[in-house]
Every structure is written in C-alpha cells, then in structure tokens.
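Internal ticket #5521
Category: modeling
Description: The requester needs a full-assembly model to guide mutagenesis choices. All entity lines are attached below as received. Residue total reported by intake: 662.
Assigned to: D.W.
Attached entities:
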Amino acid sequence: MSQSRAARRAAFILISPAVLLLLALNVFPIGFAVFISLRHWSLSIVNPPRFAGLFNYQELTLDDRFINSLSVSATFVLIAILAELVLGFALAFVFNSKLKGLDTLRKLSLLPVMAMPLVVGLVWFYMLNENFGVINWFVTLFGAERLPFLTDSTLAMLSIALADIWQWTPFVTLVIFAALQSLPEYVFEAGRMDGLTEREIFWRITLPLLRPAIVVVLIIRAIDAVRMIDLVFMMTKGGPGGATEVLPWYLYTTGFQSFDLGYAGSMAVVMIIIVTLGAQVFVRQIANPEKGR
Amino acid sequence: MVDITISGLSKSFGRVNVFDGLDLEVKDRTYVCLLGPSGCGKSTLMRIISGLDSADRGEIRFDGKNVDNLTCAQRDVGMAFQNYALYPHLTVEGNLRFPLQAPMQKGRWTQQEMRARIGEIADLLQITPLLHRTINQLSGGQQQRVSLGRSLIRHPKVLLLDEPVTHLDARLRYAMRSELKRIHNVMETTTIHVTHDQQEALAMADLLVIMREGRIDQAAPAMEVYGDPATSFVASFLGDPPRSLLEVELGETSGAPVARINGVELKLSGKLGAVANAAPGRNAILALPARAFTAAQADEPGAVLDGTVRAHEMIEGAQRIVLDVSGQKVNLHSSAIRHVVIGDRLRVFAEASDGMLFEGATGLRLSAN
C-alpha cells in the first residue's frame, strides 16, 4: 500500500514539470482569453473592465469585417494548402526518381523553410512592388503592363499565397519524400505481379500508403496557415479594402491598435475553436483509417 | 499447367555476374525446388522467371512460347514473396481480391464469382475466419497463408514460392510442406520453390535443382541427387551431417587401388577401386558420409586420419564431431559417445566403401567407364 503511494508520488513529481509548463503556457492563456472575452475591456478608455456576458460574441455575429476575415482566411488556407500539396507531392516524386544531382537539389530545396517568415514577407514585398519590383521588371520585359500585385484585391491575395507556397512547399515535399522512401519496395513488386499498371499502382497502392503522411502534413500546414500573419503584416497590412485581412490580422489590429481587448479576446476564442475542431477531423482520419475495401 | 524452358540465361548486376548461360528444363506440373547457399542466384533466377527482373541474355519459354517481353501478369505467374509483401492498407479479403481487380482482369469476374473464388481459396488455406482482419493483426504463419492465397487466386499457370516457409516456426514449417504439395496437386500448377533448406527441398521436390555460384550443379529427382551427386559440391551440400570431402591422391599399392591422404593410404575396394583405376588424373576428391568414420582409442593401430576437434554437439542421442585434418573438414557422427573438448587430438578410422570419387580440378563425378 505504502509502496504504491510512494510510486504514485514519484510519478506525480516526475510529470509535474511538464504539467506545470503546460498549465502556464497553454491552459492559463486560453483560460485568460476566455476571461477577457467575457468582459468590456478596452485600454483606450479609463473605465475599469466590467463583465459583459456574451456581448462580445454577439457582436461578432453582426460584424461584417469579422465575417469577411473568416472568408479571407478560408480562401487563403484553401489556395495555399492546395497548391503546396500538389506542388510538394509532384516534387517529392521527382526527388524520389533516381536521377543524378537530385540529392544536392533536394538539400537546397529546404532553404525557404529555414527563412524567417517576416523576412520572406519583406523580400516578396519588394519583389512584387508595382513600380520597382523585380517581378514587374520581368513582366515589362515581355512587353506587358506592370501588374498591381499588392494593390489589386485578387492579385494581393494570390501574392500572399505565392509567398506562403514558396516558403512551405519544400516542407510538404520533405514529408512526402520521406514517406515515399520508407514505402517497402516489395509491395510495388506485388502490385506488378498482380498485373497492375504503373498508374493503377499509384492510385491503389502508393496513395493509400501515403495517406498518414498526407494527413499529418495537411494538419500541420492548415493550422499554420490559419495562424499566418507575418506575410500580411509585411506585404499588405490587410489591404486593399480588407481583401487580405485574415482573421489573425483583424484580431491583432482590434487588440493592439484599437485596444479593444475584450472583443479581440472573443475572436481569439473563436479561432481556437475553429482550429481545434478542424484538427480533430483530421486526427480522427489518422486514428481510424477506413477499412480495406 | 505449362512447360518451362530456360536456355542460355545470363544476368549480371553491375560487375557482379549472377549467372552465365544457365539452362533448365521443367516439365508441366512439376514441383521444382531450387536449392543452394545464399547468394547462389536462385532468387534472381526466380525473379527473372516471374518477369520482375529481365535477363541480359538468353530466353525463357513457356510451352515453347518466348515470354521475355511479357509482364508478370501476362505470363500468368503467381508469386508468394519471402516477406509476404501483403498490402498493409487492406484486409485479408482485400488482399485476396486485389489481383482479381487488376486492369487485365477487368470484366472477367462478377462480384459473385470473386466472392466464390475468395471463399474457395480461403477454405483451401484455412484462413476463412481471418478474412476481415487487417494484415497487422495476423501472425507470421497467417500472413504467409494469405500471401500464398493471393498468389493462387487467379489460378496461375506457374506458381513461384520464394522461401515460403522460412519465417515459420519448425512445427508449422513441417505442416506447410505437405500443405504446399497438396495445393500444388489441387491447383495443377508448375511450381518453383526457392529454398536454402536441404531437408525441405529433399522432402518436397519432384525435380531438385542444386545451384552454386550461378551454375546448376545438378537437376534431377530428389533421391537421385541425394544418392548419386554429380559434383563434389552436391555431395557435400546434402546429408545431415553433410558428407566430408577429402583431397586425395589416387595410386596403387601392390596392385590394389588406394587413396593417399597426408601419406596415409586408404584402400579402395570394389566399384570405387574400378573408378579409381579409370580416373584420368591422380588428384581426386573423396566424399565420405559421416558414418564412414569411427574414432580410434588413444593408440589403437590402423587409424588413418589424425585431426583436431573444431566443434562437437549432441543430437538426438548421437554425437557429432567436426574434425580438422590438416585443413580439411571431416564430419563424424556416432552413437558411441566419448568425452572430447575443442582442441583435442583425435585419430579416426575411415571406411571407404560408401565413398564417391570426384575429379580434383573440376569436382565432377568420376565413374568406372
């Protein structure tokens, strides 16, 4: 009896540092965000914060700018993730073929991932500048008009997506490539033995076996893309006319430029809920992959 | 349901020559065992027959038709891989169904026929209760059955088995031997079974093919290979414990043929004597079974070989000793047990009447005529 109690105490002591860190860095901030979101809490007025119930949340449902930021975020996530997956996948297959020189290329291809997102945003901001950016210089070389990359609402969204794709495609490639390398050769031989064509092997063997890797990379990239703020901050500041105002950017300006902490807090809580629910869907996909057909 | 003819087959990986000019003839519905030490090229030969690899030169014909340019599926071969190679993302049933849904099979099977075929194979292999399990829920033996089932499901003309029972425990391995033969008979296939286990090969083969370093040393019915080996390698490879090979010099002492080992003479009587007399050269290899040797007491006269004990073990009440006789390995097997330690000197008698003689340079069997 006493021994099991001692063992339990030892267990508690051993896990306590991790639990404390988790409490301090994850649970407390989330709890505090909920606490703020239930209050009128503005730094620009002298009144002390007071309880507001669900007022802030009710406001959100009526706020066109908030609804817009949700749809902008969704658009960005869709464009970026889709392009990154398709490109990353294709590159992974290219790298997987045994061509000479690809090894070096593969190592170099990881460089964008290592760059700081703010710097990436800055570089693309200059490159895409309408008047003196290098990309428009190329455009004029071909005799076309300069394009308003960051000031046209459609182009601005695509530009930010482009910067994100440039930075994160190599990551997708890396994960898929690693998964491809770990696929057992014999399964493909069995496929050939069973009379499958190369295309059939891809659809019926390779793809199903890559599924866990695809789901993982999708979750990581989706969560990252929902949180993305650096590129918007450096390239468009949410403009033109809210065309690139993603949720984190609206949240940031509400909280730290308009100093309406209570309202920003309610947005943060909504964002956490969206990300958590979204991730759950994917995680369940990994946990219970569909049974064989 | 097909004759297989292999002629002049050559294959090399980079600078490594796996085999050069290989010939083999396999009759319809034969159970062939390819036996040889690791790296002798038996697996490569099978992969070329299957169509997974292609040969550099030479050709393979099924029923007289060249199949070099046909894919595995077009050749209508089924293969059970050494590591099972099951599709990990499918259930047992999914794995069995897979070959029936390949593009080449499109339209050949209705859903009902597929179910019937899967049921039939599952019954044959006794895996019906497992059909809805996923692959990682199966034991090695079960996976092996599923793998076999997948190779059989299309009723292939040729069945290729790559070390199909190697990963099973001894009891299951033994049971699977008769199982495999039964399946072979029911399915009426031509079966090629690769193994490095001589007992398995001797027990199962209609045609036993002994390979060494990319050559076929002998291809014959199992008992013929065992009792009448064509080369010294075959003689030393089969048998448990294997026959000992002794390098000898043939000669005559007062008109009687003898074999000299390290200056000691061993009388060759009867047929063996006639063989020795007819031998073209003086250097030969004498293969003797383990029971031809008996250990001598300390200073008993007449012992011919003097060696050092390299290893010894007890198996089923008998003693086995591996003796080093000036660099040549001699296997002893006797039920008279004596105490030995590794490094002991041991003198043995040798009885040559059950021996066989092989040409020294080539290792080919010597005969009287």
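Resolution: model delivered.
Comment from assignee: The interface with chain B takes residues 184, 186-187, 189-190, 192-197, 200, 204-205, 208-209, 211, 289, 291-293 of chain A (CB under 8 Å).
Ticket closed.
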